[in-house]
Design goal:
3 helices; six-stranded mixed beta sheet; two-stranded antiparallel ribbon; alpha+beta; 201 residues; tt1808, chain A
Length: 201
Amino acid sequence: MSSTPALRYEATYDDLRALPPHLIGEILGGDLIVSPRPAAPHARAKSVLGSDVVGPFDRGRGGPGGWWILDEPELHLGRHVVVPDIAGWRRERMPVFPSAPFFTLAPDWICEVVSPGSQRIDRVRKLPIYLEHEVAWAWLVDPIARTLEIFQRTADRWTLVAAHGGNEVVRAAPFDAIEIELEGWWVPGGHDPADDASPSG
């Protein structure tokens, strides 16, 4: 007797709309991915990081301007609905800010602030989607490890072009026109994993 395989359920936009407001929903490869609102270290890093780039690059205060930078924009990229923590578009690519509640034009830069619960999804599920849709730059920020990884799209792959951490002052592409003090992203007085490293020599 033959059996009929179960049909795989493909999540729909109605599934996202049915979620309560305290949850963040995404559709990745047909799967509904639901995440809680971020914990304090995540929220701190995202808020301060956003303020560091919005002033100089979105508003042109102390920097070159030329970007639209948004917190948690909803991106409709093919069959995927993705919500990066922060994303930015060069205004030369998106000269008119859209009035729709979501974006179909892939951003030029995304930033994911990873947590123990989101890191696998951010790295394994979301980065390939951003690559497929030709996002040029991706930042992964880990507020627990206190690290910033900068990836650039080169042909069909992500290339890690720089990694920073702790209290470094950095010029981080594509926002390397200014210096950024990473110390401000981390929860003050929190534990720095570098303190656990054994001294060399």
